[in-house]
Structure formats: C-alpha cells, structure tokens
Write a structure and sequence with these properties.
The structure holds two protein chains of two kinds.
Chain A lengths: L4 H10 L8 E5 L2 E4 L4 H10 L11 E3 L10 H17 L11 H7 L8 E4 L13 E4 L2 H10 L1 E5 L3 E7 L8 H12 L8 E5 L1 H4 L3 H9 L8 E3 L4 H8 L19 E6 L6 E3 L7 E3 L10 E4 L1 H4 L2 H11 L9 E4 L4 H9 L2 H8 L2 E2 L20 E4 L15 E4 L2 H10 L9
Parallel strand pairs in A: 2-3, 2-4, 4-5, 7-8, 7-10, 8-9, 13-14, 13-16, 14-15, 16-17
Antiparallel strand pairs in A: 1-6, 11-12
Helix pairs in contact in A: 2-5, 6-8, 11-13, 11-14
Chain B lengths: L2 E3 L6 H4 L10 H5 L10 H4 L5 E4 L11 H8 L4 E4 L4 H10 L2 E4 L12 E4 L4 E4 L2 E4 L5 H9 L2 H6 L9 E2 L1
Parallel strand pairs in B: 1-2, 2-3, 3-4
Antiparallel strand pairs in B: 5-6, 6-7
Classes of the chains: A alpha/beta, B alpha/beta.
Chain lengths: 416, 164
C-alpha cells in the first residue's frame, strides 16, 4: 500500500514504516521559539529538569510579536530569552530579522523531509518547502527542547488539487480563503492539507507559503507542497542541498480529495468574525474601513507588497484610512526598498513599519477602537483579534487591501 | 458546579486576547479570561465550574496562556463536541481535562453539572451525558499530572516507538 508524503517523512525520520493514525515519538529537526510563547517554553524546559537543549544549532530563536518592546513586561521577556540563548549558546536573531515563519523559510531552516516544530500555530507555513511542520504549545516545546523529540499522531491527509490560471489580480490568498470557506474552520482538524495540481506547481514559493500558512485556519496540523524544481531552486540559494525526492505514492490513502479551479476565482474576503466566513469581494464591496494592514507571515513578502503596489499605482490612499505596511522580514524589506515599492507606499500615505507581526496579533500596536473596521492581509479575524472585541476585521489579499486603501471602502481590485 | 456554555469555534484570542500574552501567572491571566467576548466570566466563575461548548473549542493561536487562564479561573474540565488540535494538546499538557461529548447542545448555561471522570459521565439536570475516552497515549500524561511531571520521570525518550 502506498504512503502519503507525510507518512513517508515520519517513516524516514523514524527508520520504520508508520502510517496515519499511529502515534510515534519522532525526532525533531528544528524547533522555533519567539518572544510570546518562548519564555513559557523555557520555563517548562527548566521545570522538566532540562539543563542543555537537545542541540543548540537546531533551536531557532527570534523576537517578532512585541518588538521593539512595547511594554516593560515584553522587555523583561526579551531579557529572559536573551539570557537563555547566551547560557545555551543558541544563536538568537533577536529583533533583527523579522517574522519567525518568514525567517525560518528564507534562511533555509526547513527542508524537504524534515520534521520542524514551532511554538506558534502558523508554523505549518514551512510545509511550503516540503517539510512536515506544525505548531505546538509551550509545554510541548519545553519537551522538544529537552529531548529533541515529541509525540505525534501521524496525520492522514486531504489531497487538494488546484488547476487553472489565476485571473488578473487574483492570488494564492484568494485561493486559500476560498478553500477555507469551503472546508471550514474545523474541516481538516488533525489532518494534513497536501496541495497539488498544475496551479500549485506553477506557483512561486511566496504563494505556496501563503497557502500552507493558512492550513491551521481549517484546523489542520500541517500544510505541505511536495517538493519540486521550484522548491529546490529556492532552497539551493539558501544553503540547503535538498536531495530528497519525496512525494506521495499514486496509491496513497487519503481521507478526502478536493478539487479547485482558479480560472474563474474572484477576489475573496473573510468577513467577521470567522476565517471560514468567506465571500467574493463583490458581496462586501463598499464597506467603509478605518485601517488597512498589509503584512504578516501570510502576506508580508516582497511578492505581496509588489502586488499591492501594482494596484496602488501612483494613487494616494484615502486620508481617512490608516494604512500600515509591514514587510515580513528584513530581507523582504530590502527587496521592496530596492524595487521602489516602499517609496510608493510612503508617497501614498502609508505607515511603513520595521519587520514584525504588527497589528495581526492585537498586542503591540495598530489596535482597533470599538466600532472600527480593519481590512487585513493577515490570517485571523476573530473577535478582538486586532484590539477591541467591538471592532471588526476583514481578511483579504494584498491587491484587495491596496484597492480598498485608495477608496476607503472594500473594493474589488480588478476594477481599479 | 455550574456550566458556562459556549458555541462553536471558540478561539484562543477569545479565551485570552493577545495583549495579555506577556502575563504567565495563572491567577493574573484568569482576570482577563474571555475579556471582551464574555466579560462576566472572570468575575462570575467559581472553582470547579465547567465550560461546555460546541465544535472546535480552542481554535486559532497556539498560546498556552488559554488553558492556563482557564485553570487559573478554577476550571478543570472543558466539555466540547470537538477540540482544536493544539489547544487539546496544551490542555492535556497543563492539566486541564478536555473531554469530548457529542451531545452538548442539550446542556444549558448556568445549569448545575457534575462530572465523573472515572465513569466518564456528566450529569446535568438529571440527564446523563457520556464523555468519550481520551486517546491511550495521552492517558499516561494525564495520569502523571501533565507533561512536565511526565517528562521529569523520563530518563530518555522512547524514540521512534509506535503506539495507537
């Protein structure tokens, strides 16, 4: 009987055949901690009697949620983590590099066939490289830091096959929003979403990251794109030699098959207060907005900023709207600077901030007052996610965000 | 012991909003539990109260602050039709018991509830509800009192051992 790519990854790393549904204590190739969930993970590591982390070179540490420190408590957490990094000899990227998930992928810290955990739910993004990557809590992370291993129930997979060519100004974000609306907020709980088909094969890494990033919004344990030439050329430039030709067998067992075609896909918007509450942009066009956020691990890459800038053109943004643009990492920031994208945003009236999570997690800055409406390229629109529980968050693509920023209301980017 | 009834898709941002994530103390976190979405919870909850919910309880962020805030509030059991994966693991790891029950629709807010974890039943207004067993591999962690206690006893991990 054939195996899925995820079953093969676990089998390969464990040196024996394991199948979906089995629980296995599997070795960890890399573990990522950041400034919000990291301090508690370190506490738990110590409570478990941990002295030295399993392998200091396999621990990725950086700060991105509350940087530069937005409170004395955040500053203390940063100090605590810096001290731990120093004691353990862990290379701490501190607040220099950007949003954790972007940094892990762009630095080649996740590769095909690897098992990667992160103390953050959007860790599933690294599946874009062909790794099995999943988000875990702080106590599980404490365990992983100590033992370099963790219990996993090997997930079964939903095979998502995407065909067709994206129409103008329709993007992978619109695709993953449409899929989320279809599958639902718990439609893939404990499962892997395996993205395949011509559209995925032709998709750049930025788009694949956007798709895998949002697997968690359907409850999935992981998203994965089987590695191909796009993956390998991306990773080759990042010091990763990824020899692994790893793919699902044709006769692998799947929990479900889902087919999508993007050729007729319209821009999608997730309306408050659930990510699976997805409608075509036309249904909410004209909704007044107070704030636009273009950024996050979902849509803060150069390709996303460029797509937004292309729509914005030389227009200025509606002065009634606060437009916040945050590149996902220092490297992406530099690309956007060199391309003139940042200058365009600044000229249009946007606030461009240094790479970080920004308003997405509703902690650091860019919070909403009661009654305010945000349109965001991030991944969650839960009640209170970006500030007041009386505020509303809509989710969309970078192109839709830019079009809407011009007019001050939710706007179909195809008509701009 | 009373029921705090919630619907489907209760997310961890609702349980504890992002702006409180610099806090780690359970009692301090408890003061902000469901702030915004259910403001009467933090003041009204009593030790031993049970949260009863619909599908996909604890979806969203991996923040362990969510089960810790509930534990700090005195909640030791959450009963739901289903749980989001990361929350479920976090709950088991921290000592909050997540129990699955298919029929939570019939359980109402503020009802008196008694949970018997050994018999795996909950009794609400004279009616008995059956609670599904926890997967075997997690039982060991629960019996140890959470993953920290479990890990303390572990000399080395049984690497690559498979169970169901």
């Amino acid at each position: 009987m054939g195996a899925t790519i995820v079953e093969k990854i676990f089998s390969s790393r464990c040196g024996k055949a394991v199948a979906a549904g089995e629980v296995v204590m599997a070795p960890i190739d890399r573990a990522m901690i950041h400034d919000i969930t990291g301090p508690l993970a370190i506490e738990k590591f110590k409570e478990m009697g941990g002295r030295k982390v399993f392998d200091r070179n396999r621990v990725v540490m950086l700060f991105d949620h509350q940087i530069p420190a937005d409170s004395i408590e955040a500053a203390q957490n940063h100090v605590f983590m810096r001290k731990f990094a120093e004691e353990q000899g862990i290379f701490n990227r501190d607040l220099r590099e950007g949003v954790c998930h972007q940094v892990v992928v762009e630095e080649g810290l996740a590769a095909p066939g690897e098992i990667v955990v992160g103390a953050d739910s959007h860790t599933c993004m690294y599946g874009a490289t062909g790794a099995f990557a999943t988000g875990i809590g702080s106590t599980d992370m404490g365990f992983a830091l100590k033992f370099g291993a963790l219990y996993f129930r090997v997930p079964d997979s939903i095979r998502i096959e995407v065909e067709g060519t994206f129409p103008r100004r329709v993007s992978p974000k619109d695709l993953i929003l449409a899929i989320t609306g279809d599958i639902g907020a718990d439609g893939a709980t404990y499962q892997t979403l395996e993205f395949t088909g011509n559209t995925v094969q032709n998709m750049d890494m930025a788009g694949r990251m956007t798709c895998c990033n949002m697997a968690i919004e359907m409850g999935a344990k992981a998203g994965i794109v089987p590695p191909d030439t796009v993956t390998r050329s991306y990773l080759a430039g990042r010091g990763v030699i990824a020899p692994l030709e790893i793919a699902s067998d044709p006769d692998a067992t799947y929990a479900e098959f889902k087919d999508y075609n993007v050729s007729t896909l319209e821009p999608q918007v997730a309306v408050p207060h659930n990510v699976d509450n997805v409608v075509p942009v036309g249904e909410v066009a004209g909704t007044p907005i107070d704030q636009v956020f273009i950024g996050s691990c979902t849509n803060g890459r150069f390709e996303d900023l460029a797509a937004a800038a292309e729509v914005a053109g030389t227009e200025t943004f509606d002065p009634k709207v606060r437009v916040i643009v945050i590149p996902a990492s220092r490297k992406e920031y530099l690309k956007a600077l060199k391309a003139g994208t940042i200058e365009r945003f600044v000229n249009a009236g946007a606030l461009v901030e240094a790479p970080c999570c920004g308003p997405c997690m509703g902690g650091a800055f860019g919070l909403l007052a009661p009654g305010e409406v945000s349109l965001s390229t991030s991944n969650r629109n839960f009640k209170g996610r970006q500030g007041s529980a009386e505020a509303k968050v809509y989710l969309c693509s970078p192109a839709t965000a830019a079009a809407s920023a011009i007019y001050g209301v939710i706007t179909d980017p195809r008509g701009v | 012991m009373k029921v705090w009834k919630f619907g489907d898709d209760v997310d961890t941002d609702a349980i504890i909003p992002g702006r409180f994530l610099t806090i780690y103390n359970p009692m301090e976190l408890a003061k902000h539990a469901f702030e915004g979405t259910r403001p009467e919870f933090a003041m009204g909850v009593a030790r031993g109260d049970v949260i009863v919910a619909g599908r996909n309880f604890g979806c969203g962020s991996s923040r362990e602050h969510a089960p810790i805030a509930l534990l700090g509030a005195g909640v030791q059991v959450v009963i739901a039709k289903s749980f989001a994966r990361i929350f479920y693991r976090n709950a088991i790891n921290t000592g909050l018991l997540p129990l699955v029950c298919a029929e939570t629709d019939g359980i109402h807010d503020m009802s008196e509830i008694e949970v018997n974890t050994l018999k795996r039943i909950a009794v609400v207004e004279g009616k008995t509800y059956h609670l599904e067993p926890v997967p075997a591999f997690l039982k060991e962690i629960i019996e140890a009192g959470g993953l920290v206690e479990y890990a303390k006893k572990l000399e080395e991990v049984p690497l690559c051992t498979v169970s169901r």
